[in-house]
Amino acid sequence: MDSHRRVSQSLFRFCHAFALTMALTVTGINGDDVGGRQGTAKAPPQCPDNGCAAFRCPVADRDVCPLGLVPDACACCPYGLCGLGETAECNAADRPCADNLECIRTEDVNGGLQYRCTCKETDPVCGSDNRTYSNACQLNEAAAELGNNGSQLWVQYKGPCQSAPVIRSASKNLAGSIGHTVVFDCEVKGYPVPSISWRFTDTFGITKWLPGDDTLIAIQTRGGPDRFTVTSWVQIMEFKPAMHTGNYTCLGTNSVDVTTASAALDVRKMV
């Protein structure tokens, strides 16, 4: 019986040691992921050796701590410590992050490691001021800057604020050479992300949607270059004045509104 108990205890110690070894292998002693990846480790609490002498404790006053008080990991300050905002240098002892942020290890431009407050939410939000904030933490900081009026700013809904399309870049009037390629471009931003369509009005005032049945015209559209932006091109592969002289109109459309921009195409004068 004793022999069976000793075997069981030895087996337990072996399994425990094996599991600990595997855990250290996966996470790393310093909290790194396998392969030394950075940016996910949280700052460990490091309370000062001299006790609480180095701490400057705030009072329970929103004017002193605009982003609010957070618990003190070292139990030195009875009301807690002032929470820090996004991108602020932080640690888990006397420089804690505000609510909804966490102190994450990052790499600076010189390759050095540092800890900075990072918002737990990454999606944009629409504020009550109809402005789009990159995340909820940015909105909270904007509200804190308003002081006593901060309660007037809140999250209306998650996602960007709806906005009418705005033409960021539009084509200018062009003079094309017969038989050569001509390109018009148009860049539109809005939310929901707009769609782009093209309309052509010839010299007789007849309007049609492009590309229509013209085999010499191609339209390309892609997202970008920025968020909530779309870009489109009309390419006339072989300019024929009788067919292609006139006005080209870009229409940016979403559920909020429609915006337009036009440019004219004429024949290049021979000198």
UniProtKB/TrEMBL annotation:
<feature type="domain" description="Kazal-like">
    <location>
        <begin position="91"/>
        <end position="163"/>
    </location>
</feature>
<dbReference type="GO" id="GO:0005576">
    <property type="term" value="C:extracellular region"/>
</dbReference>
<dbReference type="InterPro" id="IPR013783">
    <property type="entry name" value="Ig-like_fold"/>
</dbReference>
<dbReference type="Pfam" id="PF07648">
    <property type="entry name" value="Kazal_2"/>
</dbReference>
<dbReference type="InterPro" id="IPR002350">
    <property type="entry name" value="Kazal_dom"/>
</dbReference>
<dbReference type="GO" id="GO:0005520">
    <property type="term" value="F:insulin-like growth factor binding"/>
</dbReference>
<keyword id="KW-0964">Secreted</keyword>
<dbReference type="InterPro" id="IPR003599">
    <property type="entry name" value="Ig_sub"/>
</dbReference>
<dbReference type="InterPro" id="IPR036179">
    <property type="entry name" value="Ig-like_dom_sf"/>
</dbReference>
<keyword id="KW-0393">Immunoglobulin domain</keyword>
<dbReference type="InterPro" id="IPR011390">
    <property type="entry name" value="IGFBP_rP_mac25"/>
</dbReference>
<feature type="signal peptide">
    <location>
        <begin position="1"/>
        <end position="31"/>
    </location>
</feature>
<feature type="domain" description="Ig-like">
    <location>
        <begin position="165"/>
        <end position="266"/>
    </location>
</feature>
<dbReference type="InterPro" id="IPR000867">
    <property type="entry name" value="IGFBP-like"/>
</dbReference>
<dbReference type="InterPro" id="IPR009030">
    <property type="entry name" value="Growth_fac_rcpt_cys_sf"/>
</dbReference>
<dbReference type="GO" id="GO:0009966">
    <property type="term" value="P:regulation of signal transduction"/>
</dbReference>
<dbReference type="Pfam" id="PF13927">
    <property type="entry name" value="Ig_3"/>
</dbReference>
<protein>
    <submittedName>
        <fullName>Kazal-type serine protease inhibitor domain-containing protein 1</fullName>
    </submittedName>
</protein>
<dbReference type="InterPro" id="IPR007110">
    <property type="entry name" value="Ig-like_dom"/>
</dbReference>
<keyword id="KW-0732">Signal</keyword>
<dbReference type="InterPro" id="IPR003598">
    <property type="entry name" value="Ig_sub2"/>
</dbReference>
<dbReference type="InterPro" id="IPR036058">
    <property type="entry name" value="Kazal_dom_sf"/>
</dbReference>
<dbReference type="GO" id="GO:0001558">
    <property type="term" value="P:regulation of cell growth"/>
</dbReference>
<keyword id="KW-1015">Disulfide bond</keyword>
<feature type="domain" description="IGFBP N-terminal">
    <location>
        <begin position="43"/>
        <end position="120"/>
    </location>
</feature>
